[in-house]
Amino acid sequence: MPKSSSLHLSLPLIWDHAPGFRLSGPASFRLDGDHLHLQAQVASAVGLRQGGGPLILQLWALDEATPAVVKVAELVDGQLMVDATGGLELSGWTVAHPPAGPAVWRLVLVLCTPASGGSGLTGLDALAFEAPYPWIQPRLAGAVAWRSRSGGEPGEGTLHVEAIDNPRDAGSVSGDLALELWRLSGAFDGGAFTGMCLSTWPLGTLDGAGRIVPAPLDVTLSEQPGRPCLMLREWTPLGWLARDYRWLDDALWSVQVPAEEALVEPAPSEPEPEPEPEPEPEPAPAPAPAPAPAPAPAPAPAPAPAPAPAPAPAPAPAAAAAVPASPAEVRVSVNRGSVEQLSAVKGLGAAVARAIVAGRPHAQLDDLLAVRGIGPKLLERFRPFLTL
Q: What domains can be seen in the chain, in order of their start residue?
Protein backbone atom coordinates (compact mmCIF):
# COMPACT_ATOMS: atom_id res chain seq x y z
CA MET A 1 0.00 0.00 0.00
CA PRO A 2 2.26 2.82 -1.26
CA LYS A 3 2.32 6.41 -0.19
CA SER A 4 1.79 9.07 -2.80
CA SER A 5 2.20 12.82 -2.60
CA SER A 6 -0.46 13.16 -5.30
CA LEU A 7 -3.01 11.89 -2.80
CA HIS A 8 -2.54 15.08 -0.82
CA LEU A 9 -3.68 17.06 -3.85
CA SER A 10 -6.72 14.85 -4.45
CA LEU A 11 -8.21 15.01 -0.96
CA PRO A 12 -9.95 18.09 0.50
CA LEU A 13 -7.68 18.41 3.54
CA ILE A 14 -5.03 20.81 4.81
CA TRP A 15 -1.81 18.87 5.32
CA ASP A 16 0.83 19.04 8.02
CA HIS A 17 4.15 18.67 6.20
CA ALA A 18 6.10 17.85 9.38
CA PRO A 19 3.71 15.61 11.32
CA GLY A 20 4.64 13.84 14.52
CA PHE A 21 2.60 10.79 13.48
CA ARG A 22 2.66 8.80 10.25
CA LEU A 23 1.09 5.65 8.87
CA SER A 24 3.48 2.69 8.79
CA GLY A 25 3.32 -1.03 8.29
CA PRO A 26 0.15 -2.88 7.28
CA ALA A 27 -3.29 -1.31 7.17
CA SER A 28 -6.65 -2.87 6.42
CA PHE A 29 -10.38 -2.35 6.24
CA ARG A 30 -13.25 -4.82 6.49
CA LEU A 31 -16.86 -4.16 5.50
CA ASP A 32 -19.63 -5.93 7.42
CA GLY A 33 -23.06 -4.78 6.26
CA ASP A 34 -23.31 -1.06 6.96
CA HIS A 35 -20.26 -1.00 9.25
CA LEU A 36 -16.56 -0.80 8.50
CA HIS A 37 -13.55 -1.87 10.56
CA LEU A 38 -10.40 0.21 10.05
CA GLN A 39 -6.93 -0.74 11.28
CA ALA A 40 -3.56 0.93 10.75
CA GLN A 41 -0.04 0.93 12.18
CA VAL A 42 1.07 4.38 13.32
CA ALA A 43 4.66 5.53 13.76
CA SER A 44 5.30 8.32 16.25
CA ALA A 45 8.22 10.71 16.31
CA VAL A 46 7.16 12.10 19.68
CA GLY A 47 6.30 8.96 21.65
CA LEU A 48 2.84 8.45 23.06
CA ARG A 49 0.50 11.30 22.35
CA GLN A 50 0.40 13.84 25.16
CA GLY A 51 -2.55 16.24 25.06
CA GLY A 52 -3.72 17.62 21.71
CA GLY A 53 -6.61 16.26 19.69
CA PRO A 54 -7.33 12.61 18.89
CA LEU A 55 -5.92 10.70 15.98
CA ILE A 56 -8.61 10.08 13.35
CA LEU A 57 -8.68 7.50 10.56
CA GLN A 58 -10.61 8.25 7.38
CA LEU A 59 -11.30 6.06 4.35
CA TRP A 60 -11.75 7.93 1.05
CA ALA A 61 -12.83 6.64 -2.38
CA LEU A 62 -11.34 8.17 -5.54
CA ASP A 63 -12.70 7.56 -9.03
CA GLU A 64 -9.63 7.77 -11.25
CA ALA A 65 -11.78 8.30 -14.36
CA THR A 66 -13.32 11.48 -12.91
CA PRO A 67 -12.42 14.00 -10.21
CA ALA A 68 -14.93 12.33 -7.88
CA VAL A 69 -13.81 12.03 -4.23
CA VAL A 70 -16.13 10.54 -1.58
CA LYS A 71 -15.45 10.11 2.14
CA VAL A 72 -16.56 6.56 2.95
CA ALA A 73 -15.92 6.41 6.72
CA GLU A 74 -14.38 8.27 9.64
CA LEU A 75 -13.11 6.64 12.83
CA VAL A 76 -12.97 9.34 15.51
CA ASP A 77 -12.90 7.27 18.70
CA GLY A 78 -10.59 4.46 17.57
CA GLN A 79 -8.58 2.46 20.06
CA LEU A 80 -4.89 3.44 20.14
CA MET A 81 -2.75 0.58 21.48
CA VAL A 82 0.96 -0.14 21.87
CA ASP A 83 1.94 -3.44 20.26
CA ALA A 84 4.71 -5.82 21.34
CA THR A 85 7.34 -3.98 19.30
CA GLY A 86 6.50 -0.63 20.83
CA GLY A 87 4.62 0.55 17.76
CA LEU A 88 1.15 2.05 17.81
CA GLU A 89 -1.96 0.49 16.33
CA LEU A 90 -5.16 2.46 15.72
CA SER A 91 -8.34 0.48 15.02
CA GLY A 92 -12.09 0.37 15.51
CA TRP A 93 -15.55 0.10 13.96
CA THR A 94 -17.53 2.91 12.33
CA VAL A 95 -20.49 3.36 9.99
CA ALA A 96 -19.79 3.14 6.25
CA HIS A 97 -21.06 5.56 3.60
CA PRO A 98 -20.01 3.95 0.29
CA PRO A 99 -20.30 5.99 -2.91
CA ALA A 100 -23.29 5.38 -5.17
CA GLY A 101 -22.99 4.06 -8.69
CA PRO A 102 -21.20 1.27 -10.54
CA ALA A 103 -17.70 2.81 -10.66
CA VAL A 104 -14.67 0.91 -9.40
CA TRP A 105 -12.96 3.06 -6.80
CA ARG A 106 -9.43 3.50 -5.52
CA LEU A 107 -9.42 3.56 -1.71
CA VAL A 108 -7.16 5.75 0.39
CA LEU A 109 -6.60 5.59 4.16
CA VAL A 110 -5.89 8.94 5.80
CA LEU A 111 -4.52 9.74 9.26
CA CYS A 112 -5.58 13.17 10.49
CA THR A 113 -6.22 15.23 13.60
CA PRO A 114 -8.37 18.26 14.47
CA ALA A 115 -6.86 21.46 13.10
CA SER A 116 -5.56 24.05 15.51
CA GLY A 117 -8.34 26.44 16.34
CA GLY A 118 -10.90 23.64 16.17
CA SER A 119 -11.98 24.26 12.56
CA GLY A 120 -11.70 21.28 10.23
CA LEU A 121 -9.06 18.57 10.14
CA THR A 122 -5.37 18.51 9.38
CA GLY A 123 -4.06 15.60 7.31
CA LEU A 124 -0.99 13.87 8.71
CA ASP A 125 -0.43 11.02 6.25
CA ALA A 126 -2.16 8.96 3.53
CA LEU A 127 -1.77 5.46 2.12
CA ALA A 128 -3.47 4.08 -1.01
CA PHE A 129 -4.71 0.49 -1.24
CA GLU A 130 -3.29 -1.05 -4.41
CA ALA A 131 -6.32 -3.03 -5.59
CA PRO A 132 -9.34 -1.09 -6.87
CA TYR A 133 -12.52 -1.80 -4.97
CA PRO A 134 -16.05 -2.31 -6.39
CA TRP A 135 -18.79 -1.62 -3.84
CA ILE A 136 -21.42 -4.36 -3.86
CA GLN A 137 -24.82 -2.78 -3.23
CA PRO A 138 -28.33 -2.63 -4.73
CA ARG A 139 -28.30 -1.16 -8.23
CA LEU A 140 -30.44 -0.09 -11.18
CA ALA A 141 -30.24 -2.77 -13.87
CA GLY A 142 -30.96 -2.25 -17.56
CA ALA A 143 -32.60 0.76 -19.13
CA VAL A 144 -34.52 3.66 -17.64
CA ALA A 145 -37.05 5.06 -20.13
CA TRP A 146 -39.50 7.97 -20.08
CA ARG A 147 -42.92 7.87 -21.72
CA SER A 148 -45.10 10.96 -21.96
CA ARG A 149 -48.74 10.40 -21.03
CA SER A 150 -51.00 10.40 -24.09
CA GLY A 151 -53.69 13.02 -23.55
CA GLY A 152 -52.12 14.22 -20.31
CA GLU A 153 -50.91 17.63 -19.33
CA PRO A 154 -47.44 18.80 -20.44
CA GLY A 155 -44.75 17.15 -18.34
CA GLU A 156 -46.94 14.21 -17.29
CA GLY A 157 -45.69 10.72 -17.98
CA THR A 158 -44.17 7.56 -16.58
CA LEU A 159 -40.65 6.35 -15.85
CA HIS A 160 -39.97 2.71 -16.67
CA VAL A 161 -37.10 1.05 -14.77
CA GLU A 162 -36.14 -2.28 -16.29
CA ALA A 163 -35.11 -3.92 -12.99
CA ILE A 164 -33.41 -3.48 -9.62
CA ASP A 165 -30.79 -6.04 -8.53
CA ASN A 166 -29.25 -6.84 -5.16
CA PRO A 167 -25.87 -8.45 -5.93
CA ARG A 168 -25.06 -9.05 -2.25
CA ASP A 169 -24.75 -12.60 -0.97
CA ALA A 170 -27.82 -14.84 -0.97
CA GLY A 171 -29.25 -15.03 2.53
CA SER A 172 -28.72 -11.34 3.20
CA VAL A 173 -31.49 -8.74 3.05
CA SER A 174 -31.20 -5.11 2.05
CA GLY A 175 -32.53 -2.23 4.07
CA ASP A 176 -35.74 -0.62 2.87
CA LEU A 177 -35.27 0.60 -0.71
CA ALA A 178 -36.88 3.51 -2.51
CA LEU A 179 -36.70 5.13 -5.91
CA GLU A 180 -36.53 8.91 -5.74
CA LEU A 181 -36.68 11.53 -8.47
CA TRP A 182 -34.54 14.58 -7.66
CA ARG A 183 -33.58 17.83 -9.26
CA LEU A 184 -30.00 18.38 -8.13
CA SER A 185 -28.68 21.89 -7.80
CA GLY A 186 -25.01 20.91 -7.79
CA ALA A 187 -22.57 18.21 -8.80
CA PHE A 188 -23.18 14.61 -7.73
CA ASP A 189 -20.49 11.95 -7.95
CA GLY A 190 -22.01 9.33 -5.68
CA GLY A 191 -21.52 11.07 -2.34
CA ALA A 192 -23.21 14.08 -0.77
CA PHE A 193 -25.63 16.15 -2.87
CA THR A 194 -28.08 19.04 -2.69
CA GLY A 195 -31.37 19.49 -4.48
CA MET A 196 -35.12 18.96 -4.29
CA CYS A 197 -36.88 15.59 -4.14
CA LEU A 198 -39.84 15.56 -6.57
CA SER A 199 -41.25 12.06 -5.98
CA THR A 200 -40.58 8.95 -3.88
CA TRP A 201 -41.66 5.36 -4.55
CA PRO A 202 -41.06 2.88 -1.65
CA LEU A 203 -39.95 -0.59 -2.75
CA GLY A 204 -39.46 -2.50 0.52
CA THR A 205 -36.50 -4.83 1.14
CA LEU A 206 -34.77 -7.05 -1.42
CA ASP A 207 -33.09 -10.39 -0.72
CA GLY A 208 -29.47 -10.90 -1.68
CA ALA A 209 -29.07 -12.22 -5.26
CA GLY A 210 -32.66 -11.07 -5.85
CA ARG A 211 -34.30 -8.86 -8.47
CA ILE A 212 -37.49 -6.83 -8.63
CA VAL A 213 -39.20 -5.13 -11.57
CA PRO A 214 -40.89 -1.96 -10.32
CA ALA A 215 -44.20 -0.81 -11.75
CA PRO A 216 -44.13 2.24 -14.06
CA LEU A 217 -43.62 5.40 -12.01
CA ASP A 218 -46.11 8.23 -12.52
CA VAL A 219 -44.22 11.50 -12.85
CA THR A 220 -45.12 15.16 -13.29
CA LEU A 221 -42.09 17.20 -14.26
CA SER A 222 -41.76 20.43 -12.35
CA GLU A 223 -40.30 23.71 -13.48
CA GLN A 224 -37.76 23.64 -10.63
CA PRO A 225 -34.16 24.40 -11.60
CA GLY A 226 -31.57 21.67 -11.53
CA ARG A 227 -30.70 18.50 -13.38
CA PRO A 228 -33.15 15.59 -12.98
CA CYS A 229 -31.68 12.46 -11.43
CA LEU A 230 -33.33 9.14 -10.55
CA MET A 231 -31.80 7.60 -7.41
CA LEU A 232 -32.03 4.20 -5.80
CA ARG A 233 -31.64 4.77 -2.05
CA GLU A 234 -31.41 2.43 0.94
CA TRP A 235 -32.21 2.96 4.61
CA THR A 236 -29.07 2.54 6.78
CA PRO A 237 -27.88 3.55 10.26
CA LEU A 238 -26.90 6.87 8.64
CA GLY A 239 -30.38 7.35 7.17
CA TRP A 240 -31.20 7.16 3.45
CA LEU A 241 -28.07 6.65 1.30
CA ALA A 242 -27.89 6.64 -2.49
CA ARG A 243 -26.85 3.25 -3.89
CA ASP A 244 -27.19 3.93 -7.61
CA TYR A 245 -28.40 6.74 -9.85
CA ARG A 246 -29.15 7.74 -13.43
CA TRP A 247 -29.03 11.23 -14.85
CA LEU A 248 -32.22 11.95 -16.79
CA ASP A 249 -31.05 14.21 -19.58
CA ASP A 250 -33.27 16.24 -21.87
CA ALA A 251 -32.85 13.61 -24.57
CA LEU A 252 -34.56 11.08 -22.31
CA TRP A 253 -37.63 13.25 -21.81
CA SER A 254 -38.07 13.57 -25.58
CA VAL A 255 -38.71 9.84 -26.01
CA GLN A 256 -42.49 9.87 -26.27
CA VAL A 257 -45.27 7.48 -27.16
CA PRO A 258 -47.09 8.82 -30.27
CA ALA A 259 -50.29 10.57 -29.22
CA GLU A 260 -53.27 8.52 -30.44
CA GLU A 261 -56.17 10.60 -29.21
CA ALA A 262 -56.66 12.19 -32.68
CA LEU A 263 -57.59 8.75 -34.00
CA VAL A 264 -60.77 8.60 -31.94
CA GLU A 265 -62.38 11.52 -33.77
CA PRO A 266 -63.47 9.61 -36.94
CA ALA A 267 -65.29 6.98 -34.86
CA PRO A 268 -68.53 8.91 -34.19
CA SER A 269 -68.64 10.23 -37.77
CA GLU A 270 -68.89 6.78 -39.38
CA PRO A 271 -72.63 6.08 -38.69
CA GLU A 272 -73.78 9.67 -39.27
CA PRO A 273 -73.60 9.88 -43.10
CA GLU A 274 -76.36 7.25 -43.56
CA PRO A 275 -79.67 8.69 -42.34
CA GLU A 276 -81.47 7.79 -45.62
CA PRO A 277 -82.18 4.15 -44.64
CA GLU A 278 -84.39 5.45 -41.81
CA PRO A 279 -87.71 5.03 -43.76
CA GLU A 280 -86.86 1.37 -44.42
CA PRO A 281 -87.01 -0.37 -41.05
CA GLU A 282 -89.23 -3.11 -42.57
CA PRO A 283 -86.69 -4.34 -45.10
CA ALA A 284 -84.64 -5.66 -42.21
CA PRO A 285 -86.55 -8.98 -42.27
CA ALA A 286 -86.93 -8.74 -46.05
CA PRO A 287 -83.86 -10.85 -46.89
CA ALA A 288 -85.65 -14.04 -45.76
CA PRO A 289 -89.03 -13.54 -47.53
CA ALA A 290 -87.41 -12.04 -50.62
CA PRO A 291 -87.24 -15.39 -52.47
CA ALA A 292 -90.98 -16.04 -51.87
CA PRO A 293 -92.28 -13.03 -53.84
CA ALA A 294 -89.87 -13.79 -56.65
CA PRO A 295 -91.67 -16.89 -58.00
CA ALA A 296 -95.19 -15.39 -57.58
CA PRO A 297 -96.52 -14.47 -61.07
CA ALA A 298 -98.56 -11.41 -60.07
CA PRO A 299 -95.98 -9.60 -57.99
CA ALA A 300 -93.22 -10.59 -60.38
CA PRO A 301 -92.62 -6.98 -61.43
CA ALA A 302 -92.32 -5.91 -57.80
CA PRO A 303 -89.34 -8.14 -56.98
CA ALA A 304 -87.34 -6.31 -59.62
CA PRO A 305 -86.97 -3.19 -57.45
CA ALA A 306 -86.58 -5.37 -54.37
CA PRO A 307 -83.05 -6.50 -55.31
CA ALA A 308 -82.03 -2.87 -55.68
CA PRO A 309 -82.64 -2.05 -52.00
CA ALA A 310 -81.39 -5.50 -51.03
CA PRO A 311 -77.82 -4.24 -50.35
CA ALA A 312 -79.24 -1.56 -48.08
CA PRO A 313 -80.73 -3.90 -45.45
CA ALA A 314 -77.27 -5.03 -44.36
CA PRO A 315 -76.22 -1.58 -43.11
CA ALA A 316 -79.83 -0.63 -42.37
CA PRO A 317 -80.02 -2.19 -38.90
CA ALA A 318 -76.77 -0.55 -37.86
CA ALA A 319 -77.69 2.74 -39.46
CA ALA A 320 -81.20 2.74 -38.08
CA ALA A 321 -79.88 1.93 -34.62
CA ALA A 322 -77.13 4.49 -34.96
CA VAL A 323 -79.52 7.38 -35.37
CA PRO A 324 -81.48 7.07 -32.13
CA ALA A 325 -78.97 5.09 -30.05
CA SER A 326 -75.50 5.35 -31.53
CA PRO A 327 -73.67 5.65 -28.18
CA ALA A 328 -75.51 2.70 -26.65
CA GLU A 329 -74.74 0.50 -29.63
CA VAL A 330 -71.02 1.21 -29.85
CA ARG A 331 -70.24 1.69 -26.14
CA VAL A 332 -68.00 -0.87 -24.43
CA SER A 333 -68.44 -1.70 -20.74
CA VAL A 334 -65.38 -0.80 -18.67
CA ASN A 335 -66.45 -3.41 -16.09
CA ARG A 336 -67.47 -6.27 -18.40
CA GLY A 337 -65.74 -5.65 -21.71
CA SER A 338 -62.70 -7.71 -22.65
CA VAL A 339 -59.28 -6.29 -23.36
CA GLU A 340 -59.90 -6.89 -27.07
CA GLN A 341 -63.23 -5.03 -26.98
CA LEU A 342 -61.78 -2.09 -25.09
CA SER A 343 -58.69 -1.83 -27.26
CA ALA A 344 -60.96 -1.78 -30.33
CA VAL A 345 -61.97 1.76 -29.32
CA LYS A 346 -59.72 3.74 -31.62
CA GLY A 347 -56.91 5.48 -29.82
CA LEU A 348 -57.39 3.64 -26.53
CA GLY A 349 -54.73 1.00 -27.15
CA ALA A 350 -54.08 -2.44 -25.67
CA ALA A 351 -51.91 -1.21 -22.79
CA VAL A 352 -54.58 1.17 -21.53
CA ALA A 353 -57.26 -1.50 -22.05
CA ARG A 354 -55.32 -3.91 -19.85
CA ALA A 355 -54.95 -1.21 -17.21
CA ILE A 356 -58.73 -0.58 -17.26
CA VAL A 357 -59.42 -4.30 -16.78
CA ALA A 358 -56.84 -4.53 -13.99
CA GLY A 359 -58.43 -1.62 -12.14
CA ARG A 360 -61.96 -3.07 -12.01
CA PRO A 361 -64.54 -2.48 -10.66
CA HIS A 362 -65.11 1.13 -11.73
CA ALA A 363 -67.99 2.90 -9.97
CA GLN A 364 -68.09 5.69 -12.55
CA LEU A 365 -66.31 6.60 -15.75
CA ASP A 366 -64.40 9.33 -13.94
CA ASP A 367 -62.62 6.53 -12.04
CA LEU A 368 -60.65 5.95 -15.26
CA LEU A 369 -58.62 9.06 -14.46
CA ALA A 370 -56.73 6.82 -12.02
CA VAL A 371 -55.72 4.49 -14.87
CA ARG A 372 -52.23 5.03 -16.22
CA GLY A 373 -52.37 6.55 -19.69
CA ILE A 374 -55.74 8.32 -19.35
CA GLY A 375 -55.87 12.04 -18.64
CA PRO A 376 -58.89 14.37 -18.42
CA LYS A 377 -58.78 15.32 -22.11
CA LEU A 378 -58.48 11.75 -23.31
CA LEU A 379 -61.31 10.59 -21.02
CA GLU A 380 -63.67 13.16 -22.55
CA ARG A 381 -62.82 11.82 -26.02
CA PHE A 382 -63.46 8.21 -24.94
CA ARG A 383 -66.56 8.88 -22.82
CA PRO A 384 -69.11 8.57 -25.73
CA PHE A 385 -67.82 5.07 -26.46
CA LEU A 386 -67.63 3.68 -22.91
CA THR A 387 -70.16 2.65 -20.30
CA LEU A 388 -70.14 0.99 -16.89
A: 5-134 (2.60.40), 139-253 (2.60.40), 261-289+313-387 (1.10.150.320)
